[in-house]
Write a structure and sequence with these properties.
13 helices; homodimer; about 35% helix; 20 strands; alpha/beta; VC0802-like; 2 domains
C-alpha cells in the first residue's frame, strides 16, 4: 500500500476535541487505502509550560535534562492520539523516537537527524497498525533523548516520509497554506497553490514560513511531495514542490519581514586586508551566525563594517566585538535593535532583471530609507527602520502585484 | 563507595521548592560519602491529571497507550530533580527505565519487574554522577513502556537497591514513618522504630501501609535495609528489617482498618464436596482476588458460604455468582458494602496465645459485632460494621497498649 505521512502541530492537538478531530482525519486517510504514519507535536502550549517548570528549578538547566523534560510533551500527544484512534475502532500504535530509531547527533536542543530506521514502522504497518510517532525528538549515540529545536516535528515528518518513500507528506497546521505575505499585515495577501523548495527555504529562513527550514531541505534533497494544509478545513493547501517550468515566469513569489535581528556597525575600521576576517572569525567562534555583512568603500584609510545578528546573540556579539575593536584599532562598535529585514523571494529573479529596482522604487515612493542590502540568487533583502516595516511590506506586495488580483509575470 | 538508594514520592517533589529541598537532601547523602541513586515519582497529582486527560479522549483507553501516557509524569520529575542537583554544582544524570534496563512482564498498568541491569548505573557512578531514575515504569520484552501500578516507585527503588547491593534504601514520603495505627483516627498512635518485613507486608496488603507490598517483598527476599522517612524533617523514621530476637516479645505491632472490601454471602449452598471449589473457581477465573473466605458448618444439607472482594470487583463478582448460584442450586447471593476489616499484626502472635481473645473482648466491650474472622500466622482480621470501624480501631489499639505509654509485652 502507498504510505502517507501526516504531521499535526500543537494547535491541531491542543485539547481532547481537537485530538478526536485529528484522529478522524487520520483514519480517513487509512480508509482511502493508505498506510498512515502520523507525527505529532506537543499539545498547544505544553512545551512552553515545561520550559517554565524548568525555570522554577534553575535559571540554567543542563541541555540534556531540558531535552529529557520537554520530550514528554510529544509523548503525551502520541498516547492521546493513539487512544482516540483506538476509540474509532482502528488498530494503532504510538512510538517514541528511540522505538522507531530516529538517530541524531548529540547537539541537545538543536540536534540534527543522522538516520532513521524503518523496520519497526514497516512491521507495525504490516500488522495493519496506524503508526503514531513523537515529533521533535531523537536519540543520540549516547542513548540520550535529544530534541530538534522549535518546529522540529516538521523535520521528523519529512525525514520519515523520505525514509519510507511516502507518496506524500502533509503538514497540518492552523493556517491553510503558504501566503504571498503575512495576511495579518497584508490584507490582500493570496494563498499560493505551489511554492518551490528554494523559495520556501528562503521564506522559512526568515521566520516567515509555516515550515521548519530543515524540513524543506530534507524534502528537497529526498524529493518528498510536501503539502501544508489546515487541520480545521478541507482546503487543498499549498504544495512545496520541485521547480517546474513556468514557475520562473513569476518575478516574485512572496514577500516577508523579519524582526529578529540587530544591526551591529563597527566604525572607523583600518582599511587593510584581513581586518574584516578578524572580526568575522572572532564572532563566529562564539557560534554566532552572522546574517547580512556589508563593508563600505573606504576613505582616508578607514572604512565601516556592518553586520546583522539574531537579537538573542546581541550581548555576546557586543562583548566579542568590543575586544576586537580595541585590538584592530577601530573607532567603536554600536548596536541597533530597531530594524527589520524586508525580503522578496522568487525563482523568477534568476532570469529577470529589474526586481531590485522595482523593490527599491516602491520603498522610495513611501520615503522608506534602506540601510543595508543583501541579495541571493532568488532573494533580495533590505534592512529598514522597524517602524516602517509593515508599511514597506504592503508597498512591495503591491509593487509586484502579489495580491488577490494576480501576480506580476513577464 | 557504598551505595545509598533514596526514593521520593509525589508529595516530596510537588513543586519547584520541594524539588530543590529534595535535591539538597540528595547531595547531602553524596557529601556523606555515598554513591547515590534516587528514584522519583511523578509530581503531586500529575498522574491523576494524565488519567483525566485520557478520559477526555476515550472512556476505554488501551492499556499500552495509557502506560505511554502516564510514564511521562516520572520523566518530568527526574529531569527537574537532575536540574536542581546540577544547579547545586554536583554532576548528575537522569535515566529512564529503558536506559537503566528495568525489564518487566507485559502486564500494562500492573507490570512486575523481571530483571534490572546495573551496567549503566555503575558506569555513571564511576563518572561521579548522582543517578536519578524514573520510578513506576519499566520496559517489556516488546520494547514497550510498562508501569508497575500505584505505588510502584517503591518497588523500583527496592529492586535497584537489591541489584546494587545498596547499604540502605530510604523511602521519603509525607509521613515520618510507620505508626501503630493511623494517627488521624487514633490520636495516641505511636511511631514505630522498627517493623519486620512480614509485619509490614500484612500492614501494606491492607492498604494501611505507607509502602507498596511488592517493595516489601523485594526487601525481604533480597535483604535490603529499608527505611521510611519524612522528606520534610530529619526524624530517623522507621526501619523495615529482618525479624530479630526480641521482636516476638511484643504481642501486636500495629492495628489497621481497611474499607475497600465488600462482603458477598451465598446462602443455602448444598453441603456437598466440591461446591465451594466451583464457586471459587468461577470468581477467580475473572481475575478477581478473594480475600476472606468462610464456610459455616452446614445443617439440613445446606450451608452458607461467604467471602470478601474488593469493592471495585463487586459488580463482576455478583454477575458471576448469580450464574453459579443457579447452577449449584443455592438459595441466593447478596452483597454488603457497609463493612470494614479490622486487623492486628505482629510476629509475637506466633509464640503467644490470647491475642484473639484479647481483641474480641475489646470489641465485645464496645458492643461491636464480629461478622467474619480470618487469621494468619501473624495477623488476625475481623469484618465489622463500617460505622463502628474507627471506634473498633481505637478499642483494639488500647487493648494492646500500643499508644504512647508503651506496648504490651510478655
Amino acid at each position: 500500500m502507498p504510505i502517507i505521512v501526516q504531521k499535526y502541530g500543537g494547535t491541531s492537538v491542543a485539547d481532547g476535541e481537537k485530538i478526536k478531530a485529528a484522529a478522524g482525519r487520520i483514519v480517513a486517510a487509512k480508509e482511502q487505502g493508505y498506510d498512515v504514519l502520523t507525527v505529532v507535536s506537543a499539545m498547544g502550549k505544553t512545551t512552553d509550560a515545561l520550559y517554565e517548570l524548568a525555570n522554577q528549578v534553575t535559571s540554567n538547566p543542563p541541555v540534556r535534562e531540558l531535552d529529557m523534560l520537554v520530550a514528554t510533551g510529544e509523548q503525551v500527544s502520541i498516547a492521546l492520539i493513539a487512544m482516540a484512534i483506538d476509540a474509532l475502532g482502528y488498530p494503532v500504535i504510538s512510538l517514541l523516537a528511540d522505538q522507531v530509531g530516529i538517530r541524531t547527533d548529540t547537539s541537545h536542543g538543536k540536534a540534527r537527524i543522522l538516520s532513521v530506521q524503518t523496520e519497526r514502522i514497516y512491521s507495525e504497518m504490516a500488522k495493519g497498525n496506524i503508526v503514531i510517532v513523537a515529533g521533535f525528538q531523537g536519540v543520540s549515540e549516547n542513548d540520550d533523548i535529544t530534541t530538534l529545536g522549535r518546529g522540529g516535528s516538521d523535520t521528523t515528518a519529512v525525514a520519515l516520509a523520505a525514509a519510507l518513500k511516502a507518496a506524500r507528506c502533509e503538514i497540518y497546521t492552523d493556517v491553510d497554506g503558504v501566503y504571498t505575505a503575512d495576511p495579518r499585515i497584508v490584507p490582500n495577501a493570496r494563498k499560493l497553490d505551489a511554492v518551490c523548495h528554494d523559495e520556501m527555504l528562503e521564506l522559512s529562513s526568515m521566520g516567515a514560513g509555516v515550515l521548519h527550514s530543515r524540513a524543506v531541505e530534507f524534502a528537497k534533497k529526498y524529493d518528498v511531495p510536501l503539502y501544508v494544509r489546515s487541520s480545521f478545513s478541507d482546503e487543498p493547501g499549498t504544495v512545496i514542490c520541485k521547480e517546474v517550468s513556468g514557475m520562473e515566469k513569476v518575478m516574485v513569489r512572496g514577500a516577508a519581514i523579519s524582526r529578529e535581528d540587530s544591526k551591529v556597525p563597527i566604525i572607523g575600521v583600518p582599511d587593510q586586508p584581513g581586518v574584516a576576517a578578524n572580526i568575522l572569525q572572532a564572532v563566529t567562534k562564539e557560534n554566532i551566525c552572522l546574517d547580512m555583512i556589508v563593508q563600505n568603500v573606504g576613505h582616508e584609510g578607514r572604512t565601516d563594517f556592518t553586520f546583522t545578528v539574531a537579537r538573542s546573540d546581541l550581548k555576546t556579539t557586543l562583548d566579542v566585538s568590543s575586544t576586537i575593536v580595541e585590538e584592530i584599532g577601530a573607532e567603536g562598535v554600536s548596536a541597533d535593535d530597531s530594524i527589520a529585514k524586508l525580503s522578496v523571494v522568487g525563482v523568477g529573479m534568476r532570469s529577470h532583471s529589474g526586481v531590485a529596482a522595482r523593490m527599491f522604487s516602491a520603498l522610495a515612493a513611501r520615503k522608506i530609507n534602506i540601510q543595508l542590502i543583501s541579495t541571493s540568487e532568488i532573494k533580495i533583502s533590505c534592512v529598514i527602520d522597524d517602524d516602517r516595516a509593515e508599511d514597506a511590506l504592503r508597498a512591495v506586495h503591491d509593487a509586484f502585484e502579489l495580491g488577490e488580483d494576480g501576480t506580476l509575470t513577464v
